[in-house]
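Good morning C.,

I know you're traveling, so I'll keep this short. The sequence:
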Amino acid sequence: MIQSPAYEWIEAEGFEKGMQQGELHAKLATARNMLAEKAELSFVLRVTALSEEQLREHGV
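The tokens, ready to paste straight into the viewer:
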């Protein structure tokens, strides 16, 4: 089967988006665990490279 360049681009974009979402979910889970263990917020933000806004947006 021959795939068009457009199909390959869409497929690559979908893969990249999925990877980014997976990375975000992992960082959020790490942040939740750290905060549950009473880690300082500033430390959590530094370690996960997330912002306070991102944590709020995702209910952390």
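Safe travels,
E.
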